[in-house]
């Protein structure tokens, strides 16, 4: 099965449309959305409805911290811009869309793969995997051979051998990577809706569950339109700039 893994969509319609079309062109058979459907972007309702349609056709979807923030009155762990957008998002979603978010799980498993938004050791605490130490902690917290997670907004690939030594691989777009069964793996596909590595192109990954081959992709999209929508909605200008600058 060819599985498309998308995370941190962040209410960016243009980026999500581009990634879904790209995955379809490459014959993706299943889809997994790893949370943060909303936040930062100007099209939260459209993104939720689109993901919901995919779920009705068998796709998997997770809760992210921005999704949870829409449901909470207090969000002390979020910066002011994120809190502002979360409140704006809640006011721009209908009851059905809010119910969809509320029902999202924190994790799911497919065969030997674990899917979480932030990390495997405490999915509900939203701590980042942003280095070898955190990657090792996450991999040791599960029996799954491969962990997929988001939250960081930059594509990364970690591996751990039987001795517990962790290595890092910087993904190259469209270069397939075989995931050896002799190692444990942690995959961060990068963000669809708000990349932060200096490259504004949207990120996602395709995983061949039979061949255990992983391919990262960067997908250019109409980030000018997405950025202008952020400004037109009255959301912080810094969030619009991020879509142009990639960070």
What would your notes on this structure say?
With 247 residues, the protein is of the alpha/beta class. 33% of the residues lie in helices and 21% in strands. It has one domain (2-245): Purple Acid Phosphatase, chain A, domain 2. The protein is built from 8 helices and 12 strands. Helix 3 (65-71) crosses helix 4 and helix 7 (223-232) runs antiparallel to helix 8. The mean pLDDT is 96.
Summed over residues and divided by their number, the pLDDT gives a mean of 96
Number of strands: 12
How many domains? The number is 1
Order of helices and strands: EHEHEHHHEEHEEEEEEEHH
Report the sheet-strand fraction. Answer: 15-25%
Family: Belongs to the metallophosphoesterase superfamily. YfcE family.
InterPro entries: Ap4A_hydrolase, Calcineurin-like_PHP_lpxH, Metallo-depent_PP-like, Pesterase_MJ0912
Domain Calcineurin-like phosphoesterase: 1-211
Pfam families: Metallophos_2
Strand and helix layout:
Elements: E1 2-6, H1 13-25, E2 30-33, H2 44-56, E3 60-61, H3 65-71, H4 80-91, H5 95-102, E4 107-110, E5 113-116, H6 132-140, E6 146-148, E7 156-160, E8 166-169, E9 176-178, E10 184-188, E11 202-208, E12 213-219, H7 223-232, H8 237-245
Parallel strand pairs: 1-2, 2-3, 5-6, 6-10
Antiparallel strand pairs: 1-11, 4-5, 7-8, 7-10, 9-12, 11-12
Helix pairs in contact: 3-4, 7-8
């Amino acid at each position: 099965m060819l599985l498309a893994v998308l995370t941190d969509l962040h209410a960016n319609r243009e980026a999500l449309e581009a990634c879904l079309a790209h995955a379809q062109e490459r014959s993706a058979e299943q889809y997994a959305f790893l949370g943060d459907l909303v936040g930062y972007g100007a099209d939260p309702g459209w993104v939720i409805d689109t993901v919901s349609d995919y779920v009705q056709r068998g796709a998997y979807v997770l809760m992210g911290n921005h999704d949870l923030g829409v449901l909470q009155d207090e969000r002390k762990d979020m910066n002011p811009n994120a809190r502002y957008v979360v409140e704006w998002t809640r006011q721009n979603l209908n009851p059905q869309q809010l119910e969809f978010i509320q029902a999202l799980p924190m994790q799911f498993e497919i065969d030997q793969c674990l899917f979480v938004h932030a990390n495997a050791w405490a999915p509900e605490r939203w701590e980042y995997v942003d280095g070898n130490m955190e990657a090792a902690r996450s991999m040791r917290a599960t029996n799954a051979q491969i962990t997929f997670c988001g939250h960081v907004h930059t594509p990364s690939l970690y591996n751990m051998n039987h001795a517990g030594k962790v290595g890092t691989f910087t993904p190259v777009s469209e270069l397939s990577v075989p995931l050896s069964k002799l190692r444990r793996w942690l995959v961060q596909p990068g963000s669809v809706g708000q990349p932060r590595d200096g490259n504004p192109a949207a990120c996602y990954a395709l995983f061949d569950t039979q061949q255990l081959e992983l391919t990262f992709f960067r997908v250019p999209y109409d980030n000018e339109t997405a950025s202008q929508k952020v400004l037109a909605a009255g959301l912080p200008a810094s969030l619009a700039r991020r879509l142009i600058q990639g960070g």
